[in-house]
Structure formats: C-alpha cells, structure tokens
Amino acid sequence: MIERIGLLLGLMALALAAEARTTVENVRIWSEDERTRVVLDLDRAVAHNIFTLRGPDRIVIDLKDSRMSQALKSLPAGTGSVRSIRSGVRANGQLRVVLDLRQAVRSRSFTTGPNERYGDRIVIDLHRSGAPKTVKRAADARVAGRDIVIAIDPGHGGRDPGAIGKGRTQEKHVVLAISKALAERVNAEPGMKAILIRDRDVYVDHRQRMEIARRQKADLFVSVHADAVEDRRPRGASVYALSLRGASDEAARQLAHRENAQVGGVSLQHKDHGLASVLIDLSQNAALSASLDVGQSVIDELARIGRVHRSKVQQAGFLVLKAPDTPSILVETGFISNPTEEKNLRSAAHQAKVANAVLAGIRRYFYQNPPPDTRIALELRQRPGSGTEVRHVIARGDTLSEIAERYNVSARDIRRANNLTNDRIVIGQTLSIPLLVGR
C-alpha cells in the first residue's frame, strides 16, 4: 500500500512538473529588406538566453524548463538570413532552438506580453551586418537627404509642476531648461532637427504630446523629467522605455478606436480586427527594440558625466511613451528630491552637460542606424565605415576642450583620433570625433 502511494505521488509530481514547463506553441518567421524576425509563441512567459556561435554562423536560444508543443509537427523553413531552424531538449531540461544562418548577423531578442491575437512571445530580430535597423514608417512621404527629427518633450508644465525639491525647485522649470538646451544642440547638429513639444510653461495632455511628435514625423521621442522619492539619498540619472504591458494596453486602445487610428502611417480603417492587431503588434515591437537601443546609448553617455541610478534601460508603462510606431524614451535627469542633485539641476552648466550627454547618445545611435533616406545615411554611404565617428569643422572661437564637452568625449580622445600632439587647432580644420571611445 505504501509503495502504491509512493508511486502515485511520484506520478503526480511528474505530471505537475510537466504542467509547469513552458510550451512553445508555434514558431513564426518572416523577412523584410535586411531584417529577419523569428517569433516563438509561448503558453506562458519564460526566462531565455540568446548567444551567437561562429563556424558555421548560428544563433542559439535556450529556454528554461521548456518543450515544443506536440501539436507542432514541424518547424518552418528558413527565409532571409535564416537557412533553417532546429530544436532539441538538453539534459538540464532546457529547450534549445538553433537558427542556422546564411551569413553573419547582428541580433537582439526581447519578450512581449499577450495581446488579443497572441500570448507571450520571444522575438528575435536579425539584421545583416552593416544594415540599418531603425524603424521605417511605411507611408511617410520622405525626402532623400532629410534631417532626422527628434521630438523633445519637457515633462509636466502649467498647472502640473511635477516633483518639487526641498529648495522649492519645480521639475517643470528644470526639464524645460534642459529640453531647450538639448533642442538648441540638436538643431546645431548637421542632419538633425528638433521639435519642442512645449517651449514655455504650459500644460500639454500626454496623448497630445505623442500626437504632436507623430504629426511632425519624429524619428525619436525624448521625454525629459527629474525623479523624486521620499528618501533624499537616491541619486543619478535613469532612462526608461515602454513596458511590454503598456505596449499591449495601447494596442488595445488603438484597436478600439481604429476608425481614426493609424500605425506606421497606415490607416487601420477597413482593416479586419486580426490584421489591425498584427500591424500594431509589429510596429510596437520594432519601435520598442529601437527604443531599448537608443535608450542604452543615452544612459551610457550620461554615465560619463556623473552618477546613474540604473546602468541599464528600465521599462515602465509611462503613457507618454506609448506612441505605437515611434521609438520613445524617458530620461530622468536626476533626483530633484536629493539636495545635491537639486542644486545641480538648477545649474545652467550642469543642464548643458546633461543636454550634451543625451545628444551624444542620440548621435551615436543614429550614426550606427541612420534611416536610409536621411542626410546622415547619405553621407555615411559616401564614407564607408564612418559610423563610429563624426566630422567637426573648426569655426572661429572653437577650443579643443569645448569641442570635447559638446561631443561628450575627452580632449585626449580627440587628440588620439586625429594624431594631435597638443590642443592647437585652426579655423577650417576638420576633426574626427570618435563616437565609441571607452564604451
């Protein structure tokens, strides 16, 4: 009797363990231009690890305590950069999915939560080496050689002061000053143009902020804020992108109002519910992928001028980040609740440093991933391999130290990149400014 009970308990434990495993219910793949996307549809969220192997080239995705669905009779054929897909369960219970590649690629993966059409998913984006990976927006009429448009959104304003420091500093004033400094620098940057969502102390509704950016066909939306908590000790900058749950919420809202909704420049009117859902889902995932990349570039640059609160991009459901087809980040420039940082945030010199750092992160991202119809993309095509540097022509009054501060690099980095033995420069001289030093 005891043996039977033990056997029964053992079988129950095995059944429960099997039920606890994540199941890959489907594998989807498609290719467009230089990008290939692979999606693993899951019955629940799961931790995963992705890495690249060479000789031959392949991408490996390991999923903890997972298995392929028995209903999935075969894996899809390869397309784009993927020659074939195979899978197997390892001794430790991990499911390994292998993407055999046709050529070397850059890859990134992220998870996304359920929507009305799909459940949890792992998305793997593959970009052919050297190919741009910024989000392209389908129906925008773009002029070749156009400027990259950066929408800069000073948080709060008007009746909404935002956080207030111990010294009575109001967030709305600080972030407006930083945003104006950033806009000035963006407009001085060859190949870029800034749009300020608000340029004075007025309140702008959150959704209206997004719509202004979309009407201006922004390539990037940057919302500027200053953090605050009850504890006065926390310090440092942070950068946020949209959380996956927030993305799903906004997708549902877009579908609910699809008669007047657009995504990627394509009207959802007259689209069936399933197609509209897919359009929004694809656009949001692409925008989120770009947001995470540019956000990390910005936080890396902020770390060069001072303390950061988090060294990696955080994700949260900020309403202002929910534009479905525009890469968007929120920059917390520091803690206004910390007396030292409150003082810094009021300082014009510190505001300039923050603006320089944010622009440096944006610049680095777009020089590596320029939209193909932009002036920067055209110039880079004429100078192959130049995505790691920017050219600066010396004007009257320039000094090496000021140039270094503007580009958020050190004078030593500039001297080394240009084989200079001292800080002497002359009007008309062209300097190469490295974008990747110390990264």
Q: Could you characterize the architecture of this molecule?
A:
- The chain is α/β, with parallel strands linked by helices.
- The chain folds into three domains: 108 residues, Immunoglobulin-like; 221 residues, Zn-dependent exopeptidases (Aminopeptidase, 3-Layer(aba) Sandwich), CATH 3.40.630.40; 52 residues, LysM domain (Membrane-bound Lytic Murein Transglycosylase D, Chain A, Roll).
- The protein contains ten helices and 19 strands.
- The strands form five sheets. Strands 11-10-12-17-13-16 form a six-stranded mixed β-sheet, sandwiched between helices.
- A hairpin with an 8-residue loop joins strand 8 and strand 9.
- Helix 2 crosses helix 7 and helix 4 runs antiparallel to helix 5.
- The longest helix has 30 residues.
- About 13% of the residues have low confidence.
Uncertain runs: 13-18, 131-143, 246-283
Spell out the CATH superfamily of the largest domain. Answer: Zn-dependent exopeptidases
CATH fold-type name of the largest domain = Aminopeptidase
Strand order of the largest sheet: 11-10-12-17-13-16
Average pLDDT rating: 79
Number of domains: 3
Termini Cα gap: 66 Å
Tally of DSSP helical segments:
10
Residues in β-strands, percent: 25-35%
For the record, what CATH class of the largest domain applies?
Alpha Beta
Rg of Cα set: 24 Å
Helix content: 25-40%
Secondary-structure element string: HEEEEEEEEEEHEHEEHEEHEEHHHEHHE
Structural class: alpha/beta
Q: Under the CATH scheme, which architecture of the largest domain would be assigned? A: 3-Layer(aba) Sandwich
Query: Outline, from the CA principal axes?
Result: globular
* Largest sheet properties: 6 strands, mixed
Number of strands: 19
